[in-house]
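Hi Q.,

Before the meeting this afternoon, I wanted you to have the adenosine-5'-diphosphate prediction in hand. No need to reply - just skim if you have a minute. The sequence and ligand are here:
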Amino acid sequence: MSTHKASLECRHISLAYGATPVLRDVNLKIEPGEFFALLGPSGSGKSTLLRLIAGFNQHQSGELLVDGQDISGVPPHRRGVGMVFQNYALWPHMTVWDNVAFGLVERRESRDAIRRKVGAALALVGLQDYGQRRPGQLSGGQQQRVALARTIVIEPKLLLLDEPLSNLDKHLRVQMRDELKNLQRTLGLTTIFVTHDQEEAMTTADRMAVLDQGILQQVGTAAGLYDEPRNRFVAGFVGTANLLEGTVTALDGQTLCFDAQGLGRLTLPAPAQPPALGAATLAFRPHQMHITAAGAAGDAARVWLDGRVESAEFLGEFSRYRVRVGEVALICDQPHDAGVVMFEPGAAVRLGIAPSQARYLSA
Ligand code: ADP
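Predicted structure with the ligand bound:
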């Protein structure tokens, strides 16, 4: 099966339904062969953007380039784009083989070519022995593989997947995640998928774009977004974060004062690239904090806060505490080993923030 690796670029794309803006000035470049996720909460505009790339939605302004050519206005079937819908949209009365062959028959390909290509596509998704079944006789995961085979058999330049794993139960989802990744690697096809599940995006995609309210918040690798979120939204959506609102009130080469709302003044070592004075959010991850009993001496490189445990959850690999510090609740994860005794709700504790891991966000 021949594949062409296309690039895709959105330049200043905007789309509104009536007076309601749904995509606002989206700028995005997806490289040839990338496995790319559009990640965001429900209603953030992910599906609208995917459908726009497929040609089912039209943007009102901006350019949509495939391999540098503007395809705005080109009808869906002329775009060389294959889309797998969330519900798979298989024809129930047709066999698996006929479902997969359909697009080739429509294109009037020769019987030999159809036999060869359908056979190859079914083999690629591991369904070579299922050609004569009907979709209703297959599991959810197998139906999805048929939908994939049906789409890749037409050799699209771009593969679009709308929430590809959301119809599967959790166990199957993890398995299909790997299968999808392997298939994408094998084909090397530029692939864009929509998901609201950050774990799915992080484990599957090479890079991802985080959307909120139709605005592209940040683009990057999973680790890039996790370690260096640009704003509060990304910090809270990609992974779990403690977000302290406050003001950077003083700054010299060595130290920084952060007046945290509901918590008081924190004096921290200034980072190499210090934030501007003024309103900011201090972000740090639950597992980056240490927790000790009140009064215990802690690592001097950390900034320690006194608090009281509000809740404690044992999760196996780690324990998750919610700790009240001043008027703020902070989440702290402690790795678990046999013999580690958990703190009970009500216990007086100290939390140690690692300043090198803390990030100052502007919005
Ligand atoms: P997501 O895929 O991130 O859940 P969508 O792209 O489906 O979000 O929707 C983004 C916003 O656009 C939502 O507020 C939704 O209600 C609105 N929307 C989607 N389709 C239409 C439509 N055909 N007409 C009007 N509003 C729509």
